[in-house]
Amino acid sequence: MPMMSYIDAITLAMKEEMERDPNVFVLGEDVGHKGGVFKATKGLHEQFGEARVLDTPLAESAIVGVAIGAAMYGKRPIAEMQFADFIMPAVNQIVSEAAKMRYRSNNDWHCPLVVRAPFGGGVHGALYHSQSVEALFAGTPGLKIVIPSTPYDAKGLLKAAVRDEDPVLFFEHKRAYRLLKGNVPEDDYIVPIGKADVKREGSDITVITYGLCVHFAMQAADRLASDGIEVEIVDLRTVYPLDKEAIIEAAKKTGKVLLVTEDNKEGSIMSEVAAIISEHCLFDLDAPIRRLAGPDVPAMPYAPTMEKFFMMNPDKIEHAMRELAAF
Amino acid sequence: MKHQELGLSNEQVIDMYYTMLLARKLDERMWLLNRSGKVPFVISGQGQEAAQVGAAFALNPQEDYVAPYYRDLAVVLRFGMTAKHIMLSAFAKAEDPNSGGRQMPGHFGYKKGNILSGSSPVATQIPHAVGVALAGKMDGKDFVTFVSLGEGSTNQGDFHEGLNFAGVHKLPVITFVENNRYAISVPFEKQVASATVAERASSYGMQGVRVDGTDPLEVYRVTKEAVARAKNGEGGTIIEAMTLRLTAHSSDDDQRQYRSSEELEAQKEQDPLPRFEAYLVEHGVLDTAALENMHQDIKQLVNEATDYAEEAPYATPETALQYVYGEE
């Protein structure tokens, strides 16, 4: 099983799906000849030609809207937003159109499309190349929102997203692209959408998180393990709709829950996870639910001091874990 | 005779007139139902039937795709929807093929008839039409896509983004702007900075044509030409059909508040229905008896559709939970 980076796993997933199904195609800004600004579509233009790896005009609403139309016709488009921060002009197409297509037509029409977008900070991207936008779309029934944390999951989840019958927003942490490496099978496997995954078993405290924060939490958990504190780590993988069963089970298991996100705290995915735990597990808890998140400022600043202050890291998570374990 | 010069048979122009009249009578009935408290909302196409029929009859309902907007009753009738379908939608009944009673009337969608489902935010359907055209091109198909909208909607970003995309890829998209001169209450002069909508086409590498939208044969002619260009690989066309809005924007609007009584009276003189009827009589296509029969047939059809829809069941409450996602 080859070792592969997170971004190469994403590229491989698209390549395999395009080989499997001639209806799958890629469209976005600079995805063709250049292979994308992060090189996520590298090699696809050469292999599949410009009809299936389409460089579009710089216009996000059209990228998503055209993908919706093509999906309604029967294609399987994968639309790339160059940065998640630039998805805003396409919000109407995603929320008013894609998310509601099946429902509003009483199941007559549907639009199976994937919108891929690199998100997250820690790459000196400043306000408009660092944001986490998942909470803006969560709470929109009709959408599925997937955020993988490992190369293995990235490949399996993207393949599942392409085959899904409904619109999927697929957010890829851009710092994870080349930072994370892992074993990725070359065979055709799927990681199911809607299922969380226990990334580490533990009996003392539970950490629920997603994306790059899973990686940071695993590092922090290793440090605690040397002091005999065992941390259960749940990777949400799909942040909407949430895997409520897995969340409830993990919260009940240890009774001490730390929720971690890189996004701003108030109104984040973790706010909903906290609500689920409050509704279902109040009498199983041994400590108040703790949320560790980015500060409630508009976005991540450029200067390294302020970026570091905003950004999640293993030290912050370790500190919060130790506090919770000692409660 | 003009219609024969355009290659239209007598039967075809009778069919065109029938569709215009059916659209008008259904529309009028929905207003009656609204004013008598039986249906909560109507949005109208009265005054725009000639434009809609002229364009729709230049298309092929078996192959072409349409992304209509909320006034396009005559277009969807041409693409397979029936009087019964329209009334089921007006009454929001379970059998409504557009949405099963989920959407307001005028939010058309019917996969069997290649009618893309639409929403309320305007101009969002343009990129969808472009996407269908792109998909058709990928598959080597020969159809065109037809997308319609009002002139106010040509100010939306999706109009520009969608048509620029279509222009770059020379896609067979016919954009049909039904310019009734008002976006709810705001007149054309305060909506659009250019003298016409048609001239916006030059930005997208397309032809733009302005046409008298009260003349179904003229609209047919320019749409037929647009279809020919599209199929010949010459890309899309913007057709700006100059039409009338004989009713208020919707049942919740009163246009007497912002349009003078002189203006409202004057536009009645231009109503395309009597004019086309006169053309057909003048050229011996229809006689008075045939017209009388047609009126009677349509009246009966509208009555039956109304009765059927009024009696038809609503969706059960819990079906509101269905079809958020594909059923496993």
Automatic annotation (TrEMBL), chain A:
Cofactor(s) this protein requires: thiamine diphosphate
Superkingdom of source: Bacteria
Domain Transketolase-like pyrimidine-binding: 4-179
Keywords: Oxidoreductase, Thiamine pyrophosphate
Sequence intervals crossing the membrane: none
Gene3D superfamilies (alphabetical): 3.40.50.920, 3.40.50.970
GO MF annotation, one: oxidoreductase activity
Protein name: 2-oxoisovalerate dehydrogenase
Species: Caryophanon tenue
UniProt lineage: Bacteria, Bacillati, Bacillota, Bacilli, Bacillales
Automatic annotation (TrEMBL), chain B:
Biased composition (Basic and acidic residues): 250-271
Gene3D superfamilies registered for this protein in UniProt: 3.40.50.970
Native organism: Caryophanon tenue
Coiled coil: none
Entry's family note: Belongs to the BCKDHA family.
Protein name, per record: 2-oxoisovalerate dehydrogenase subunit alpha
Enzyme class: oxidoreductase
EC number(s) given by UniProt: 1.2.4.4
Lineage of producing organism: Bacteria, Bacillati, Bacillota, Bacilli, Bacillales
